[in-house]
Design a protein that fits this description.
Elements: H1 11-30, H2 44-55, H3 65-68, H4 71-86, H5 88-98, H6 105-114, H7 123-149, H8 157-172, H9 192-207, H10 209-218, H11 226-249, H12 256-265, H13 281-293, H14 306-319, E1 326-327, E2 330-331, H15 334-361, H16 367-378, H17 393-408, H18 410-414
Antiparallel strand pairs: 1-2
Helix pairs in contact: 1-2, 1-4, 1-6, 2-4, 2-17, 4-8, 5-7, 7-8, 7-9, 7-10, 8-9, 9-12, 11-12, 11-13, 13-16, 14-15, 15-16, 15-17, 16-17
């Protein structure tokens, strides 16, 4: 009697298929008549774009969520953002574990890859803590948002609480969607409480679940892992440098709060408190760089990640001295260095390809705005210079692909071809090493 062979699904492929399933389910929901106001029909490509942008927590919109979607449509978007930020796999495993279900070894490996962990030990408990901490942070955000928006909605409970919940989910998951109108948060640029609440939620979501969990559990910054230390250092450095450059680039045009908000939101959040279509070149380049770097690993944000750019610069610094890169009395592994440079290279190529494709399709938009849109979509930031709603079908498909590719990460996409995902690859044939002339 033949034994049935158990098929092992590659964890990266499973993650990709999970995200695709959620995106198409969201597309179906947003195409329903009661998802839009006045039962107006939403085309498939627009529904797909909005669903992709929600699940990939980007924030780019071809239609205004505030004016086009009904309450049901906004609820669908909020759910898609939550699932996309925390990942469907994480949420499903958490509820399954709470109900007493047994999490098998294959599912633990999937979680390990989804959370970018080195071991499956304690992975289910980690997932539970991540969900709990995320829920608590977002609930605190809801309270702060409610206090900040009461007067805007004339102290009406349901409109205020609805907007507070939606904005808290969008902020924590670095999604960048809002339901206030066409101008994002520009009308609230002087609302200090809403600005501070949004900044804190963005930072919490962008730091990454692992860092937040370590801070909460260890309560001693000196005992944090190397990963968490690097994330905190880079987050602080990018925030300070970004704020200073933006402020002095637009001195007299924006306040310190607007500069701080923009420096933080450029790192994959997508909200804006100032128009971006006429910013000076120095501010433009700063926004591009911050978007490209993005948030941190295992977070709700995108980009090549703070740890990646840290490892690259550290390697270049020590390479110039003929030494191996090290930090905090720890040597950076060759595997981490290799991954960082591969990720950076693939990201640059994807941005160039996306810019080229939309440039061919709609050359009239201009290189400056197209590049900004591509970097924004790849890094799942959601900022725009005002061209999103004027894109044709081909350009929308390109952006959908860029958002999907950027949210899952280049290493996840190209990692599908690695068949030795259960262990490190060991080649049977050893080749003669030869130097290649570089530079």
């Amino acid at each position: 009697m033949l034994k049935k062979r158990k098929i092992k699904i590659h964890p990266y492929l499973f993650i990709i298929l999970t995200f695709l399933s959620v995106i198409f389910f969201g597309t179906f929901c947003l195409m329903l008549p009661w998802a839009v106001k006045d039962s107006a029909h939403l085309s498939f490509i627009d529904a797909l774009f909005m669903s992709t942008s929600s699940v990939c927590v980007t924030g780019l919109a071809v239609v205004s969520p505030a004016t086009r979607f009904s309450v049901f449509g906004k609820i669908v978007m909020a759910i898609l953002m939550e699932v996309g930020g925390l990942s469907f796999l994480t949420i499903a495993v958490c509820f399954f574990a709470i109900l007493g279900g047994k999490i098998g070894i294959s599912n633990r490996y999937l979680l390990r890859e989804a959370l970018n962990q080195n071991s499956i030990a304690g992975i289910v408990q980690l997932v539970k803590r991540i969900i709990l901490i995320s829920f608590i942070i977002q609930m605190i955000g809801v309270v702060l948002n409610y206090l900040a928006l009461m007067s805007y909605y004339n102290f009406k409970f349901f409109p205020t609480i609805g907007a507070s919940i939606f904005h808290s989910i969008a902020s924590f998951n670095n999604a960048g969607f809002d339901i206030f109108g066409e101008q994002s948060l520009i009308p609230f640029k002087d609302n200090i409480l809403l600005n501070i609440s949004t900044i804190l939620l963005i930072l919490c979501g962008g730091l990454g679940f692992i860092v937040i969990e370590e801070i909460v559990s260890k309560k001693n910054l000196k005992k944090l892992s190397l990963h968490s230390r690097i994330v905190l250092i880079m987050t602080l450095l990018l925030t300070i440098v970004g704020t200073l450059i933006l402020k002095f680039s637009m001195y007299g045009q924006i306040t310190w709060l607007q500069a701080l908000f923009t420096a933080i939101t450029c790192r994959t959040a997508g909200f804006t408190v100032m128009p971006l279509d006429q910013i000076p070149p120095s501010a433009y380049v700063t926004c591009i760089v911050l978007m490209f770097i993005g948030a941190s690993s295992c977070s709700t944000g995108g980009g090549i990640k703070t740890t990646t750019i840290f490892v690259i610069f550290l390697t270049l610094f020590y390479y110039a001295q003929g030494k191996k890169p090290r930090i905090f009395h720890r040597k950076i592994s060759d595997g981490s260095i290799f991954k960082a440079f591969v990720l950076f290279g693939v990201a640059v190529m994807m941005v160039m390809l996306g810019t080229l494709l939309i440039g061919f399709s709609q050359p009239g938009l201009g290189l400056e705005k197209i590049l900004f849109e591509i970097v924004s979509s790849f890094s799942t930031t959601g900022l725009t210079m005002g061209i999103t709603q004027s894109l044709n079908i081909f350009s929308k498909v390109v952006l959908c692909f860029m958002m999907f590719f950027g949210r899952l990460g280049p290493l996840t996409i190209i990692g599908v071809v690695n068949h030795n995902w259960m262990a490190e690859s060991k080649e049977k044939i050893q080749y003669v090493e030869e130097r290649v002339i570089i530079g």
